[in-house]
């Protein structure tokens, strides 16, 4: 299994809703990442988990709450979002030790906040 | 992406070669990557090059690295309409122990292939 899966593919939510994005990989990667991407812009790093512990938080607002329940799963809990949070949310994973450590990306969740 | 620059658009005819350029600023970068993103999809890793290499070839793809000028290029031979996408270069900033490294992306080059 050499892919990163993300659910749901599309999500529409109101500003008062609570929802979660899910990401899963079975490549034995111990680093997992959340990125936010606006249309035709590069991905912006949000969070990095290393060995299931949060290692990087790029000053993301607290309405985004990441969780890494085990080495294969990464969640992003959403609460009280704003319309400007509408974007493609990408999950990625990589090895930590070793030579290349390339990041493999999932297909993303297209989020629309009304 | 701060410090990594790419031209925004490139248009070529089917069958021609495409060359996408990228400049970066951090001389300590160890690995440089090329990702492809088709509309509505995630990022697909195309190829990568280690900073002590000058060139890497993989089928229709050739990556050239000029470390002195901090210039990276991706050449796609015999470009097809299916190659139409946005191409991002990315540098990995050093090696952050236990953190898997941090990727800095360029703005992306939108490649349009005309039949």
Gyration radius of chain A, to the nearest Å? Answer: 13 Å
User: Which class do the helix and strand fractions of chain A yield?
Assistant: mainly beta
Number of helices of chain A: 0
Name the average pLDDT of chain A.
92
Share of helix of chain A, binned: under 10%
Low-confidence runs of chain B:
none
Largest binding interface between chains: A-B, 30 and 25 residues
Brief summary:
The complex is a heterodimer of chains A (114) and B (115). By secondary structure, chain A is mainly β.
Report on this structure.
The complex is a heterodimer of chains A (114) and B (115). Chain A is mainly beta and 114 residues long. Chain A is 0% helix and 56% strand. Chain B is 0% helix and 55% strand. Chain B has strands spanning 4-6, 9-13, 18-24, 31-37, 43-50, 55-58, 61-66, 71-76, 85-92, 103-105, 109-114. The model of chain B has no long low-confidence stretch (mean pLDDT 89). Chain B is built from no helices and eleven strands. Chain B is mainly beta and 115 residues long. The chains are: A mainly beta (114), B mainly beta (115). Chain A binds chain B through residues 4, 6, 30-31, 33, 40-43, 45, 48, 50-51, 55-56, 90, 92, 94-96, 100-108, 110, and chain B through 1, 31, 33, 35, 40-45, 48, 86, 88, 92, 98-103, 105-108, 110.
């Amino acid at each position: 299994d050499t892919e990163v899966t993300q659910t749901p593919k599309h999500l529409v939510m109101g500003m008062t809703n609570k929802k979660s994005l899910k990401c899963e990989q079975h490549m034995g990667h111990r680093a997992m990442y959340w990125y936010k991407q606006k249309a035709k812009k590069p991905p912006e790093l949000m969070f990095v988990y290393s060995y299931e512990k949060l290692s990087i938080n790029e000053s993301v607002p607290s309405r985004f709450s990441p969780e890494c329940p085990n080495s294969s799963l990464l969640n992003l809990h959403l609460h009280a979002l704003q319309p400007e949070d509408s974007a493609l949310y990408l999950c990625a994973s990589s090895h930590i030790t070793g030579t290349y450590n390339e990041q493999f990306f999932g297909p993303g969740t297209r989020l629309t906040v009304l | 992406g701060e410090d990594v620059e790419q031209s925004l658009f490139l248009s070529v005819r089917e069958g021609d070669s495409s060359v996408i350029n990228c400049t970066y600023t951090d001389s300590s970068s160890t690995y440089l990557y090329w990702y492809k993103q088709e509309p509505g999809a995630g990022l697909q890793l195309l190829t990568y090059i280690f900073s002590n290499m000058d060139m890497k070839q993989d089928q229709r793809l050739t990556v050239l690295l000029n470390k002195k000028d901090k210039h990276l290029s991706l050449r796609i031979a015999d470009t097809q309409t299916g190659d139409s996408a946005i191409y991002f270069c990315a540098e990995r900033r050093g090696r952050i122990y236990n953190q898997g490294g941090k990727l800095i992306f360029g703005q992306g080059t939108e490649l349009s292939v005309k039949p």
